Amino acid sequence: MLPLNRIHLNGLRAVETVARLGSLRAAAAELGVTIGAVSQQVSRTEAALGQHLFHRKADGMELTPKGAEIAPLLRGGFAQLAAAVARADPARGDLLTISVAPILASRWLIWQLPDFQVAHPGVKVRLDADTALVDPGSSDVDLCIRVGRGGYADVRAERLFPQRAVPVCTPGLAARIHTPADLAHVPIIREPRPMFGWEVWLAPLGLTPDILGDGPEFSDASLCLDAAISGAGVFLAFEVVAEHALARGALVALPPGMVETGLSYWLITAKDRSPSPAEQSFRRWLKARLATSGFAP
């Protein structure tokens, strides 16, 4: 008898889910069964294997050394099974699900997608606007576009291009700003939890954020960009999301121009499965479109 034949697949699935989520409750919610059922499946699997895979603790389930050894293998195996089932599902067809931050989706990607649909009419694109790093290997998401410093674990991450930032405002307001020091005399639009601060643009000029004037505050970068378009002040925007407004003249970039923030844009795909034809087509199209827009690695 093959070793796998004596282990129930549902038990292995319960072990993988608990290992990934860290608790019986979270695993039960994902699997759609009771906490007791998950606990029993894990215990039966441990008994069949002849060793414990988890330490039971009050605040959750902690992997034993052996559990930590096999958890990534189970995760990859179930990712492959999920991919196989998805590709065999006629209802899915060539559906491509892309997870992308809401502001990047609405300010850049949504304006580019018609070009992709013309080139690939058989691929149906579904955008999932989210900021959390979704694992394409254990979800219905095919790929993600994220901003960060890299070092993402258990996924395949391809650096697309560096993030750059520049202050933007309406042409009328820009006429009042002759040097960076003039930012002390115009409204500065602020975001409470920005991805980067004004120091990334001011420091190379020998200035600090202390020189900045007062101004309105909005809860996210998309609102801040709209406020800048309305003439409410100057906003330190990242280049890719301001591109459309800059191209049509609604906003202008203040000199001396763009600076790199130290972050980059990344294409995140599953580590343990081969990309589908739709994923491959989107990757090629995305890199070409970025190059056309001037966003190069």
Automatic annotation (TrEMBL):
Source organism, top-level taxon: Bacteria
GO molecular function: DNA-binding transcription factor activity; sequence-specific DNA binding
The keyword Transcription regulation belongs to this UniProt entry's keyword annotation: yes
InterPro entries listed in its UniProt record: LysR-type_TF_proteobact-type (IPR058163), LysR_HTH_N (IPR000847), LysR_subst-bd (IPR005119), WH-like_DNA-bd_sf (IPR036388), WH_DNA-bd_sf (IPR036390)
Classification via Gene3D superfamilies: Periplasmic binding protein-like II (3.40.190.10), Winged helix-like DNA-binding domain superfamily/Winged helix DNA-binding domain (1.10.10.10)
Domain HTH lysR-type: 7-64
Annotated GO biological process: DNA-templated transcription
Assigned keywords, A-Z: DNA-binding, Transcription, Transcription regulation
Keyword Transcription regulation: yes
PANTHER family on file: HTH-TYPE TRANSCRIPTIONAL REGULATOR, HTH-TYPE TRANSCRIPTIONAL REGULATOR TRPI
Protein family membership: Belongs to the LysR transcriptional regulatory family.
Record protein name field: LysR family transcriptional regulator
Species in which this protein is naturally found: Frigidibacter albus
